[in-house]
Amino acid sequence: MSSKNSNQPVVPSAREALDKFKMEAANEVGVNLKQGYNGNITAREAGSVGGQMVKKMIEAYENGLK
Fold first, then answer.
1. Residues 6+ apart with CB under 8 A from 28
2. Which of 16, 44, 46, 51 is the most buried (most CB within 10 A)?
3. To the nearest 5 percent, what fractions of the chain are helix, strand and coil?
4. Per-residue pLDDT at 1 exceeds 60
5. DSSP secondary structure string, 11-25?
6. Any idea of the CA torsion for 5, 14, 46, 25, to the nearest 10 degrees?
7. What confidence tens digit (pLDDT) does each residue in 5-38 have?
């Protein structure tokens, strides 16, 4: 089993925008994220941030289809 981290953006130059997007999603669901490591948040909080991000991406995609 490889220990290589595959959690890398497809477009490396998008890292800053993705971090900003994550912080906005966290604020919307009331999770206090800080820059860097956030090992102190619960799995539920992390899931709510990820879920909000997916919700907003789907919404953006659907608006693009109009």
1. 52
2. 46
3. 60, 0, 40
4. no
5. SGGGHHHHHHHHHHH
6. 180
7. 677 778 889 889 999 999 999 999 999 999 889 9
